[in-house]
DNA sequence: TATTGTTATACTCTATAACTATA
DNA sequence: TATAGTTATAGAGTATAACAATA
């Protein structure tokens, strides 16, 4: 067995490199963590409850809670009580939060485009389908333990 | 910008799921960390120096040093002085280390096969090429910072 | 002086669970 | 009694650098 050819290894190495490449546009310059960036991206489309952010991000409730606390402290996000269920919180970006996202998103998208430019159309579509299919199978294996 | 459709996000989510699926075969059952598993896999082909393991795994010298210390304590690996350069160490799996790898590798490869079975030949080849091309571009972006 | 590998330290992340306030 | 979200805490992983031995 050759580690270099082992698909899960190659995928992990690639994903780490891509993550670092994207983090480059938000971590040092804007002092955001990956989780904070994800919460920002989830909320830029509009306000939602913590539980909905969890559903949109693969973050768990603690990760969201911490990311939200830091974003709130930085003035990028507000928490309001949900009138329908006062245990819940409605999360909403502030103008500053939206402005920050609008500065970062084009840089992140430019890097995404640069990455995908390496692929031809057939490769891009195959990759797209492969990601969905593989994720489904990985979920099955995870459940198996 | 939709996070669900953002390629780096989808890739990270997939790679996490695949990593957990593979870790399932070595972490709980055999109490190995991902780094220890990688060092084991790197050395199963034969003895090599710490520096060579670094080159074969994307681990850095500290990660290798710690993984090696734990594997040695578990009797899975030996460290010998390198006669050519007495600063260096030659790392070599013990019989127990090789036996452990031979128990785990088929399970890991079965999971890899199960994942890749979701793809047809064209998708598999496209994915293969895409991984190499994307990794190269990601490296360029990382250097840009 | 530079390099191999180890150790130290501080920092971040993660996982588990206890907790508050509602329902 | 269950759920939404927060806080606490311990463990694992990460990053930086100082260090000993050797080149």
Characterise this structure.
- Two copies of one chain form a homodimer.
- Chain A is mainly alpha-helical.
- Helix content of chain A is 68%, strand content 12%.
- Chain A has helices at 7-23, 27-30, 34-43, 50-57, 61-73, 95-116, 121-144; strands at 48-49, 77-82, 85-93.
- In chain A, helix 3 crosses helix 5.
- Chain A is globular.
- At the A-B interface, helix 1, helix 3, helix 6 and helix 7 of A face helix 1, helix 3, helix 6 and helix 7 of B.
- Chain A binds a DNA duplex (23 and 23 nucleotides) through helix 5 and strand 3.
Q: What's the tally of helices of chain A?
A: 7
Please describe the biggest sheet of chain A, giving its number of strands, its sense, and whether it closes into a barrel.
3 strands, antiparallel
Oligomer: homodimer
DSSP helix fraction of chain A? 55-70%
The succession of helices and strands of chain A, N to C, reads: HHHEHHEEHH
Strand content of chain A: 5-15%
Structural class of chain A: mainly alpha
Provide the residue-averaged pLDDT of chain A: 96
Q: Point out poorly predicted stretches of chain A.
A: none
Note the overall shape of chain A: globular
Number of DSSP strand runs of chain A: 3
The first-to-last residue Cα distance of chain A is: 22 Å
Strand order of the largest sheet of chain A: 1-3-2
Over the alpha carbons, how many angstroms does the gyration radius of chain A reach?
A: 18 Å
Biggest interface and residues each: A-B, 61 and 61 residues
């Amino acid at each position: 067995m050759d580690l270099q050819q082992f698909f899960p290894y190659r995928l992990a190495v690639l994903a780490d490199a891509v993550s670092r490449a994207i983090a480059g546009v938000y971590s040092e310059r804007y002092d955001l963590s990956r989780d904070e960036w994800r919460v920002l991206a989830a909320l830029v489309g509009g306000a939602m409850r913590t539980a909905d952010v969890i559903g949109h991000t693969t973050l768990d409730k603690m990760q969201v809670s911490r990311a939200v606390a830091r974003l709130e402290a930085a003035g990028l996000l507000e928490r309001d009580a949900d009138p329908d269920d006062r245990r819940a919180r409605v999360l909403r970006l502030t103008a500053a939060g939206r402005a920050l996202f609008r500065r970062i998103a084009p840089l992140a998208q430019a890097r995404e485009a640069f990455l995908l430019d390496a692929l031809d159309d057939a490769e891009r579509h195959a990759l797209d389908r492969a990601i969905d299919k593989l994720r489904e199978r990985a979920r099955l294996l995870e459940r198996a333990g």
